[in-house]
Every structure is written in structure tokens, then in C-alpha cells.
Amino acid sequence: MAASELPVLRDLDKPQQKDLDRCVHCGLCLNSCPTYRVLGVEMDSPRGRIYQMVQVHNGAEISASYQQHLDLCLACRGCETACPSGVQYGRLIEAARAEIENRVQRPFLTRLLRRFVFGSLLPSPALLKMAAAGMYVYQNFGLQALARGLGILKLMGKMGELEKLAPPAEFPTFFSAYGKVFPAEGKRRHKVALLGGCIANISFARLNEATVRVLQKNGCEVHVPRGQTCCGALHVHSGIREDARRLARRNIDALLGEGFDAILTNSAGCGSTLKEYNELLEHDEAYKAGAEKFSRLVKDINEFLAAIGLNPRMGNLPLRVTYQDSCHLAHGQKVRAAPRQLLKAVPGLEFQEMPLSDLCCGSAGIYNVLQTGMSMQVLGRKMELANSVPANVIATANTGCMLQLRAGVAMHGKGQRVAHVIEILDEAYRKA
User: Fold this and answer.
1) What are the counts of helices (DSSP H) followed by strands (DSSP E) for the chain?
2) How far apart are CA 245 and CA 223, in angstroms?
3) Which domain holds residue 135?
4) How confident is the model at residue 142 (pLDDT cuts 50, 70, 90)?
5) Predicted local distance difference test score (pLDDT) of residue 148
6) Spatial separation of the C-alpha atoms in residues 44 and 56, rounded to whole Å
7) Which of 111, 301, 345, 367 could form a disulfide bond with 266, CB atoms 3.0-4.6 angstroms apart?
8) 3-state secondary structure of 419
9) Are 297 and 178 found together in one domain?
10) What phi and psi, each to the nearest 5 degrees, are found at residue 198?
11) Rounded to whole angstroms, how far apart are CA atoms 168 and 292?
């Protein structure tokens, strides 16, 4: 896109009147909002935040208070499920954050850090592998145990608290699978592409490998295209839409012309953004049609497997499993039945439904890093619900939720194991 077009596009990266007008201020969304449930403050509810967006749209300044109320939103989109008027709150909160990003200058060090993380680290396999190497040494060569044992982390304040949420580093990383094709077992039924992600390639490499194996068991020829990159979800959630557009174009170029039956992801947060590339690039004439086709091809791994009919040749797994709905799968993609259908298909598995299973766990991308206090309060309430169910496994369908729930089990749990639905299917197939 030409540089001359950016100012026009930035003017569109803000809440639009037609989206704001959908809200009739009925308040039926309030009880579905995690921050409102904790604080009981109107300005920290979907209705209250939309009211503030309207004021800014009508000329009010972007104040520090406005930024704080929007920053405290998890963007879980639970309010979209509750809304009888079809308000696209996810679209509104992302647009409002983009408007803040375009109009408010952040402190220099904050700008520098954001530029490094979003502009350099997440799209770069080389930098991600370097970060993974450092994490692996820290976590596996006694440094982590030493830091915790000596109480060094307590002296580091918030940084010490965040260390508990740090994802594990797994070697080899999944970047080693890029450019490879994994043949179907038996007759080929589908040709699919798998998106590895960014952080998932170094912290959930074994999950990605399990995803490939499960797809092979279900007659899929799995391609891991070399040209793919970060999906841009964290960028979109943070208001950095122009960087997200660049990543979207790279993924479209890498995957769209290969004749895939589906483009798959095992991370619900990524999938929600991938399915909305058509909105992200709706004003880009060169990529608009491609983005719409790309979005139609994207499927969550649970959604895809349930649709094609699951291979039933699995071994017995005597587990009691409850399921935690990932917000961006349940509310963003409207996929609820598929993960439960897959779990119930596993021989020997006893499924236990969790109360309020679609209430956010507090992960929300990097929310638990930026808003740790609120995130931990939301997580505490989630663990009360998880602990009320007689299950020894908490299953979910998003990598961020997995990290958050593992922290929740460590702090508040009953020794439950946290697993992705696909990991459970992989175990069952390997047992057979």
C-alpha cells in the first residue's frame, strides 16, 4: 500500500458510527463482562466503554482515564454472545485501540519496547529461536530453581510475578517443520495447511507436532508452508493494525495459491484474527478479494476435525475431563460443540461440563502481562468453577488459555492437568 494512502486508512481505524449505533444500551452484556463482574464499575463494562467511545467519536479528548478503561478490557467478546442487538464489540474495541495508537504518543521507552516486540520479535523466526534458547537455558539448567530458591524473583517486583506466567521453551522448535509436507495415513482425504504461529513455535512445538499427527490419522496431507508468519492477532488486539496488515498480506501470499482444502490453526486467538483478515484488509483493493477467500478457508482444528468426521480408531483413555471454552473460539468464532464432540468420542473418557465454561480465564493474549492484577482476579474466579467439577484434566483449545490455566492450577487448583483437546486425541491415537 502506498504511503499516501496511510493517513486515509488511519482515519478509518477508529470506531465507526454504524457499529456504535448498534448498541441500544440495554445492559444485558454487563454480567458477561469479566471486569464488570470483578469491579462492578459501569465504565469498565461493555456498555460503559461504548459510551466512552461515542464521546470520543463526537469530539471528546482521548484522556488517560479513557485509555485506562479500554486497556482494562480483556476483549474476550463474551458481550457479543450476550448482546441481542448484534453489537460487534470486538471490532469496536480493536478500532478504539487503533485510534489511540494513531493519535496518542506513548513514552519513548514504551514505544521502543512495543516496536521491538511487535515489529521485530514476533515476525522473526531467528529472534524467536534466540529468545527460546535463552529461556531454555534459564528453565532447564538450574537458573530458574536458583532464582526462586534465593528469593531473587520476589525482589524483582512485577517482573518476578510475571516469571510464573512465562511459557516453557521447547526444543527442537516447530520452525524445523517449515517447508515440509507430512503425508496422510492411508487414503488422502484432504490437503491442508497448518499455521505454526509465532510464540507457539517455540513454546508449544510438541502441540504443533501432535496436531500434525492427528491430522495424518484423519487422512490429511499436512503442509507447513515456509513463507508463513505471525498471524497478527496480538498486533490487532493492541491497536497496531498497520503491522497486522503487513503480516496478513504475507500469509495470504504464502498460503492462498496452493489449493488447500483448509488453512488450520490450533490456537483460537490466532484463528479469530485469521478469520477476520477480510475486515482487516477491507480497504485494500489489491488484497481484498484474497483476504475474503483466505478467511473462508481458515478453520479451527477442532471445527475441522468435527466436520470431516473423526477417525474412531483410538485407544482407551480413562480420564475425567472438563472443558474450558476459549473466548475467541466460543465468542469470536462461535465454535462450541466441536471440542466437546471430539472429547466425547475418546474411548474411556468421562466428560464433565464446567459451570460458566465460557467465562474468560484472564489470559487474553498479553493481557496477563500488562494487567496482571485484574488477570489474576479473573483467573481465581475461573479456578473456583474448574475446581467445582470432579475432573482430573482441564481441556481447552487455545495456547494462551493453557498457560493461564496452568498458573491457575499451581496457585488455586487440585492438581489437575491442563491439556489441549488435540493433545488428548493424540494420546488416544498413540495408545491404539
Assistant:
1) 26, 9
2) 23
3) 114-165
4) confident
5) 74
6) 16
7) 301
8) strand
9) yes
10) -125, -80
11) 35
Q: Are residues 280 and 349 in the same domain?
A: no
Specify if 131 maps to a domain: yes
In a domain, residue 155? The reply is yes
CA–CA dist 131, 400 (Å, integer) = 18
CATH number assigned to the domain comprising residue 238:
1.20.1050
Over the stretch 336-365, which tens digit does the pLDDT of each residue have?
A: 999 999 999 999 999 999 999 999 999 998
- For residue 22 the three cell numbers come to 448498534
Residue 195 shares a structural domain with residue 266: yes
61 and 23 housed in the same domain: yes
**Looking at the 3D structure of the chain, how many domains does it have?**
4
Phi, psi of 323 (to 5 degrees): -120, 130
CATH code, domain carrying 65: 1.10.1060
Model confidence band, residue 164 (pLDDT cutoffs 50, 70, 90): confident
Banded model confidence at residue 4, pLDDT cuts 50, 70, 90: very low
Can you tell me the mean pLDDT for 2-6?
48
Grid coordinates standing for 323?
Answer: 472443558
What DSSP assignment string belongs to 80-112?
HHH-TT---HHHHHHHHHHHHHHH-PPPHHHHH
Query: Which of the 8 DSSP states describes residue 298?
Result: E
Q: For 67-93, what is the mean pLDDT?
A: 96
Same-domain check for residues 120 and 199: no
pLDDT digits 0-9 by tens, 382-409: 999 999 999 999 999 999 999 999 999 9
Provide the pLDDT confidence category of residue 183 given band limits of 50, 70 and 90.
very high
Residue 291 lies in a domain: yes
Residues 281 and 206 in one domain: yes
Q: Is residue 108 assigned to a domain?
A: no
pLDDT at 198: 94
Q: Are residues 298 and 324 in the same domain?
A: no
Contact of 19 with 88, CB cutoff 8 Å: yes
CATH number at residue 336: 3.40.50
- 165: Cβ contacts below 8 Å, ≥ 6 apart: 368, 369, 372, 403, 404, 407
CA trace torsion 196, 199, 203, 208 (10° rounding):
-10
Q: Is the pTM of this model over 0.85?
A: yes
Q: Is the pLDDT confidence value at 129 over 50?
A: yes
The fraction of the chain above a pLDDT of 70, given in percent, is: 95
Whether 129 and 77 share a structural domain: no
Contact 167, 196 (CB under 8 A): no
b/e burial code for range 415-430 (CB count within 10 A of at least 16 → b): ebbbbbbbbbbbbbbe
